TrEMBL record:
Species this chain originates from: Nocardioides daeguensis
A Pfam family recorded for this sequence: Acetyltransf_3
Protein name: GNAT family N-acetyltransferase
Segments forming a coiled coil: none
Transmembrane parts of this sequence: none
Domain N-acetyltransferase: 82-177
PROSITE patterns per UniProt: GNAT (PS51186)
PANTHER family, alphabetized: ACETYLTRANSFERASE (PTHR39173)
């Protein structure tokens, strides 16, 4: 089972274990970590700073470059308080020029030790459903041209390849029907 939950400091220990499992922020797609000053620190205070950062983007477009978005943590259960945090998902409410070319509506990643268990596929499906609730009729999801696992996940989730741009494959997924 997989759930999307709002980032919450109450899950800081599981979040910290996930941060350590990733090892490098370059793999943490959908996390928003680049909006922090420095890398995420796997402590309760570091988690609190991370959660505060995610809350800023829900209020509206920021600084002319970022769009409103909703951050989720992916958990390995039904969203209960004892579930382990296994990844990140960011649902962007609209596309700016950069997101249309490369970033897409949904960015996500699953920690290395939790991969190949279906979390990415289920999280993507849940993210697409959330996009539909926001009134988005179809979402753009991208991946690097050499990321076969992500490409397969997107295609299995209904992604239809439009094209390749700047080293990214661009897929559209209908949110309803």
């Amino acid at each position: 089972m997989t759930a999307l939950v709002p980032p919450d400091v109450a899950r800081w220990q599981s979040w910290a274990a996930m941060i350590e499992d990733f090892g490098a922020t370059a793999q943490m797609h959908g996390s928003g970590h680049w909006h922090l000053e420095g890398d995420p620190v796997p402590t309760e205070a570091g988690c609190a700073a991370f959660v505060a950062m995610t809350e800023l983007t829900s209020a509206g477009d920021l600084d002319g470059t970022r769009v409103s978005s909703t951050y989720f943590w992916i958990t390995d259960g039904d969203g209960g308080p004892d579930d382990d945090v296994v990844g990140f998902l960011n649902l962007r409410h609209r596309l700016n020029d950069w997101l249309l070319e490369q970033g897409g509506h949904i960015g996500y990643s699953v920690r290395p030790s939790a991969r190949r268990r279906g979390h990415a596929s289920r999280a993507l499906a849940l993210g697409v459903r959330e996009a539909g609730r926001l009134g988005i009729e179809r979402v753009l999801v991208t991946c690097d041209t050499d990321n076969d696992a992500s490409r397969r996940t997107i295609e299995a989730g209904g992604g239809v390849l439009e094209d390749e741009r700047a080293g990214k494959l661009r897929f559209w997924i209908a949110t309803a029907g």
